[in-house]
Amino acid sequence: MSTVITNIGELVTNDPAVGDGLGIVRDAALVMDGDTIAWTGPASEAPAADESFDAAGRAVLPGFVDSHAHLVFAGERAEEFAARMSGQKYAAGGIRTTVERTRAASDDDLRANLRRLITEMARQGTTTVECKSGYGLTVDQEERAVRIAAELADEVTYLGAHVVPTGWDAAAYAHLAATDMLAACAPHARWVDVFCEEGAFDADQTREILQAGVKVGLGPRLHANQLTQGPAVQLAVELDAASADHCTFLSESDIDALASSQTVATLLPGVEFSTRQPYPNARRLLEAGATVALATDCNPGSCYSSSMAFCIAVAVRDMRMTPAEAVWSATAGGARALRRTDVGHLGIGARADVHVLDAPSHIHLAYRPGVPQTAAVWKAGHRVR
Fold first, then answer.
1. DSSP string for residues in 205-234
2. Largest CA distance in the chain
3. Domains defined for the chain, CATH in brackets
4. Which of 38, 115, 196, 270 has its CA 20 to 30 A from that of 68?
């Protein structure tokens, strides 16, 4: 089955063959054939297809690629959020509250909540979702989390080392995460991640877990420098991690290391918005030549938002990214953070993940913050909104 989208006012392809930046085509059309992009170009030259959709002058973008989310959980932490807004400092320990509730939930409850959130994301234009474990913190519970995540998420990350559980020594738990827990979880995951941070896991413990994951075929990624300026970014680059996520507190040497590597700096502005921490220095990263992605970090503690459009608006307003930079980072940047070449762009042969805005330009995502602007969404050629 083929579908042509006609009368596109602004087509964002992210295709380097089309031009620099967003690869914009005006007065355009696009053809999806099955689950792939088959043709893009001027609307006047659009080929026939089995079905058609009139974009009525709207903008069309690649589906958002959310490369950092924690979606297998139970419960919520609204009171913790209210306490932070009253002046309490954010700390990693709040994760343990969600661990207790997640352990007590049934598989069906966790699956239903995961499905709800992925559906919520899709209705806002997100067509690729990475999902982490990390709210189980036992071998059986972490295995359950990645197994359920693999049923619904596009990318699954084993994050057994999210925080040190109550009653455990950090080194002993890190060893468990690198051995028995990893063995149970690896068959369901593509990635391994560690929260390398004061109050969680140090550099040696992080290296042990990530190197063990690499040995069994998982790609490394890393929670890096969220709460303090520490060793995590340098470690991510050393291990050729796909991404260093958060990057809130960076030294000049951290920025230079990212700029000279293939490791993507994944920025999570919804977290800073929700915790009142300083925003990452996106401008400095971009000017140094680092690759930047934007993601939601949707989770019940530090950022309970599934909206990539919101992250784009905050990145433009408070991290001084341009609208074009923010949109690229939320699409092509996210794809690079997952080392995917089939998503995040609308070049020929890409997966047919298409986001029709109810607006004439990608700029409106930052220009009209908080306003629903998704008119239609296709994921792998199937309309989901």
1. HHHHHHHHHHHTTPEE-EEESSSS--SHHH
2. 67
3. 2-63+344-383 (2.30.40.10), 65-337 (3.20.20.140)
4. 38
Residue 71: both structure tokens together = 């979606």
Q: Which residues contact 262 (CB under 8 A, 6 or more apart)?
A: 240, 291
Burial class (CB in 10 A: 0-12, 13-18, 19+), 51: exposed
Alpha helix (H) ranges present in the chain?
Answer: 78-85, 95-104, 107-122, 139-152, 170-178, 180-185, 203-215, 232-238, 252-259, 269-275, 282-288, 308-318, 323-328, 334-337, 364-367
Give, in order, the Cα–Cα distances in Å from 284 to each of 129, 256, 258, 264: 27, 10, 11, 14
Give the total residue count for the chain: 385
pLDDT in tens, 135-174: 999 999 999 999 999 999 999 999 999 999 999 999 999 9
Residues 354, 346: contact at Cβ < 8 Å?
yes
Structure tokens at 125: 């234009």
Residue 93 pLDDT greater than 70, yes or no: no
pLDDT at 298 over 80: yes
For residue 21, how many C-alpha atoms fall within 13 Å in the half-sphere facing its CB?
12
HEC-encoded secondary structure of 111-154: HHHHHHHHHHHHCCCEEEEEEECCCCCCHHHHHHHHHHHHHHCC
